[in-house]
Amino acid sequence: MCTLEKRGDLFFLTLTGDDEHRFHPNTIASILSLLEQAKSQSTRGSVLITTGHGKFFSNGFDLAWALSDGSKTVAANRLDQMVVSFKPVVAAILDLPMPTIAALNGHAAAAGLMLALSHDYVFMRKDRGVLYMSEVNIGLSMPDYFAAMVRAKIGTSTARRELLLSGKKIRGEEAVALGIVDSAAYDSEGGVVEASVRLGEKLAAKKWSGEVYASIRKSLYPELCEILGLEARIFAQPKL
C-alpha cells in the first residue's frame, strides 16, 4: 500500500505493494491518512518526499478492479468512485504546510502522474521511466481537476498537447525540455531519491512557516484550488 517515515525534518511517503502501485480505494484512503499524519506532525522545516519501489512510481487507478465485476455499470461506478476519492489526496498535497518533492523511481501514468504533479518539485530518472496520460488511448475523459492540474503546472500549450492529446510516453530528457519535470539527471532509483533528499535538506534549512508556504502555494493555482475546494488564507508572520 504505502508507508510514511520521518527522518529528521524529512517525511518519506513511499508507494509499496504490487509493482504498478495502482490506486485502489483502499490505497487512496491509506495515502490520504498518511498525508494527514504528516500534516499533523509538521514543524518549521518539514519537507515531504514521495517515491515508490521498482519499475513504477504509479500506473494510476486500479482499472482491473473497476472491470473485475464484468458489468459496465459497476465499472463506471467504480471508476467514478476512484476519481472522487482521489481528489482529496491532490487537495491534501497542495494544502500541506511544507515543500513537497516527487522522486519518480519509474513510470508515472494517469492518476500516478497527477500525484507527482501535485508536488512542488518533480524529479525523474533519465535511464528508466516514462510519463504517460493514457486517457486518449483507452477512451476515458479527463476529470476536471486533472485538466486544471495540467493547466496549472505545465506552462505551454505544446507541452500540454504532447502530454494529453498525443498518447505518447514521454521520457526524462523530453519531459524536462517540455517543462513537465524539473530534472531527469539520475541513473538509478537511489539516485533520484538522493537528489530529492539533497533538495529537501536545503529547503528544510530555511525553516519557513508551513502555513505561509501553503498559503503562497495555493495562491499560485487559483483555478485548481477552487475546483479542489481550497482557500489561500492570508498570514502575516514577518521576520524583521
From TrEMBL:
One of its GO terms (molecular function) is delta(3)-delta(2)-enoyl-CoA isomerase activity. The keyword Hydrolase does not apply. Keywords: Fatty acid metabolism, Isomerase, Lipid metabolism. It is an enzyme of class 5 (isomerase). The keyword GTP-binding does not apply. Pathway: Lipid metabolism; fatty acid beta-oxidation. It catalyses: a (3E)-enoyl-CoA = a 4-saturated (2E)-enoyl-CoA; a (3Z)-enoyl-CoA = a 4-saturated (2E)-enoyl-CoA. GO terms for biological process: fatty acid catabolic process. Its EC number is 5.3.3.8. PANTHER family: ENOYL-COA HYDRATASE-RELATED, ENOYL-COA HYDRATASE_ISOMERASE FAMILY PROTEIN. Belongs to the enoyl-CoA hydratase/isomerase family. This is Delta(3)-Delta(2)-enoyl-CoA isomerase. The lineage of its organism: Eukaryota, Viridiplantae, Streptophyta, Embryophyta, Tracheophyta.
